Amino acid sequence: MSIQLVLYPQNHDGVYTTTSFPVLREYVSDGKFFNSINFLSGYDAPTTSTNPAFDALTSSPAIPSWKKFRSTNTSGIYGITTMPSQSFLNRLVINSSSSNLSSSGVYQKIQNLYVGVQYELNINITQAGAGGILIIGNSLSTNTIGGGLVTQLSTSATGTQTILFTAANTTETLILDYRNSNGTTIRINKISIKDKVNAPSQTYGELSDGQVICDTYEEEDIPLTLSIDNFKNVAEKVQSYSKDFNLPATKRNNKIFTHLFEVTKTQDGLSFNPYVKTECILKQDGYTIFQGFLKLIDIVNKEEEISYNVNLYSEPIALKDILENKKFRDLDFSELET
Fold first, then answer.
1. Is residue 27 part of a domain?
2. Boundary residue ending a domain (167, 195, 223)
3. Quick one: pLDDT band at residue 20, thresholds 50, 70, 90?
4. Whether residue 209 sits in one domain with residue 81
5. Which residues contact residue 179 at a Cβ distance below 8 angstroms, ignoring those fewer than 6 apart?
6. Cα separation, 314 vs 291, whole angstroms
7. What are the pLDDT digits (tens) for 177-217?
8. CB within 8 Å of 256: residues ≥ 6 apart
9. Which residue from 151, 232, 243, 312 puts its CA 20 to 30 A from 48's CA?
10. Mean pLDDT for the chain?
11. Quick one: 191 and 204 in the same domain?
């Protein structure tokens, strides 16, 4: 087991720089129950259409909920098929023509993306459509996920298929276009877009954004008290904290704490200030187990061995404060899935 205590640099307000931590929020609206699929009549592409998906995007622009489309030609390029729908088992059902290649699917606007950030799209197919493909994106539209570079997924097998994409815009359209010509139907259990989270770093050393990892005593135990909300009183504020513990006065730690134990040291704007909040993260085997602040309590000099006595604490917060501006669709219930 390895412990990492990561500190962020201080500025005059007590925190280094604004730092974003990975939050696995869900960007797809109604991507599990598909309740909105049956609310709208859907878009019928013209019988002369050479790209029904693109025609749907331009004639009936995406919204932050599902829309649907289909091809309608009985003998042309794309055969007629029925509209996508929601099944009684809360599955998304997309059909194909049995006589001609057909194009049918769903789309929605994905908002609040960060340009240049990588995201993970997962599509769970529970009923396969042999010989078919599911096209993600559209070659004629640069504002769809993929930026005009389409990704083709085979629908011949069930299971979850994953696509990684980098956002080119803050708002992009997710479009799924099922193409087949044998009358088969695919069923989709879940569609999800979340932040891509990389494996936790095990590297000891300087990190990005001015972060540094403190040296700790080998096999040191840092006792934490992690508080959780009382669901009977959602307005009650709770706080997590640690008991005080010591950090050795190594070359690295002395640099971090700017040799505060030296009584002749002159304080300046670059010195560590024990009276302001210092943002920190505590990791175990690379995974974050605590996020909050570090407080320098004292300088300990025991038998000429100097150490920094510190503790960790979080800001008091109530469950009410976390949830009051969120919608039900913003909550992540993935841990409850079986």
1. no
2. 195
3. very low
4. no
5. 96, 101, 102, 103, 132, 133, 135
6. 7
7. 999 999 999 999 999 999 886 554 444 444 556 788 888 88
8. 7, 212, 214, 272
9. 151
10. 82
11. no
Q: Are residues 190 and 47 located together in one domain of the fold?
A: yes
Same domain for 45 and 17: no
Instruction: Quote the pLDDT of residue 59.
Output: 96
% of the chain with per-residue pLDDT over 90: 46
Q: In terms of domains, do 233 and 186 share one?
A: no
Which residue type is seen at 142?
A: T
3-state secondary structure of 256: helix
Q: Is residue 30 part of a domain?
A: no
> What's the pTM value of the predicted model, to 2 decimals?
0.57
**282 sits in which H/E element:** strand 278-284
Tell me, yes or no, whether 16 and 98 share the same domain.
no
Q: Based on the domain organization, do 181 and 273 belong to the same domain?
A: no
Residues near 230 by beta carbon (within 8 Å), at least 6 away in sequence: 236, 238
Residue 26 pLDDT greater than 50, yes or no: yes
